[in-house]
Amino acid sequence: MRATLLALILTALMSASGLSGAADAATPVPAATPAATAPTSPGARVENPPYPDPKVVFDFYFAHPDEINTGLYWIRSLIQPLMDAPYNEAPEMMNIVVVIHGTEIVTLAKKNEAKYKEAVERMRYYHDLGVKFHVCGMAMHDYDYSPADMQPFVTIVPSAMADLVGLQQQGYALIIPKIMSKHRSIAEIR
Predict the structure, then answer these.
(1) CA nearest neighbour of 62 among 79, 54, 74
(2) Contact present, 100 and 59 (Cβ < 8 Å)
(3) 129, 171, 127: which is closest to 151 by C-alpha?
(4) pLDDT score recorded for residue 22
(5) Do 75 and 69 contact (CB within 8 A), yes or no?
(6) Residue 24 vs residue 77, higher pLDDT
(7) 95-122: burial string, b at 16+ Cβ within 10 Å, e else
(8) CB–CB of 172/52 below 8 Å?
(9) Which sign does the torsion angle of CA 176, 83, 47, 73 carry?
(10) In what order do the strands lie in the sheet with 95-100?
(11) Where are the beta strands (DSSP E) in 82-138?
């Protein structure tokens, strides 16, 4: 398309300046039709920028325990594309910590495993990939839990706030999942 437009401009300039020659006669002049001049849209450009190994801390502090399921999708949205082509990142090269200090702490209590089975299984899966789950000791105390009450894949830290600050000072990027309630399905709004 650009070549056609350039040929038209070049031909017009050469004609206006009185230049001519064999090459000019051989250069076809495209017809100025809407199809020939209208730009075509190939769609969005897909880019795969280079990313360093991630070093991320997720701050989980949710109003309702069930919201942890949505929060866990944020982790998936980071890990999955990096594990897939073209990145093929090994999970052990990703430094990911989830700091838990809201109502979702109840999902990690062993006695609630049946109630929050899906979330616990997903956290166990992510833990097996190398994601670390830190539980705020102060929040654990507020909910009247002890370390023995928690799932074995979690680590108890003294304070979520101190942990978040310390990890950021070590260069971890902070991600705070925003949990929104969906009122209409994707199919409805597409």
Answers:
(1) 74
(2) no
(3) 127
(4) 43
(5) no
(6) 77
(7) bbbbbbbbbbbebbbeebeeebeebbeb
(8) no
(9) negative
(10) 154-157, 132-136, 95-100, 55-60, 173-175
(11) 95-100, 132-136
pLDDT at 189: 79
Structure tokens at 116: 């929050």
* Predicted pLDDT at 130: 97
Q: Is 3.40.1260.10 the CATH classification of the domain at 55-175?
A: yes
The pLDDT of residue 93 is 93
Q: With beta carbons less than 8 A apart as the criterion, state whether 172 and 55 touch.
A: yes
Q: Taking a C-beta distance cutoff of 8 angstroms, is the pair 65, 106 a contact?
A: yes
Domain boundaries, the chain: 2-37, 55-175
The separation between the first and the last C-alpha atoms of the chain, rounded to the nearest angstrom, is 31
Please give the helix or strand (H or E) that residue 155 lies within, else none: strand 154-157
Predicted local confidence at residue 185, as pLDDT = 82
Written as six digits, the tokens of 152 are: 């074995």
Q: Is 152 in a helix, a strand, or coil?
A: coil
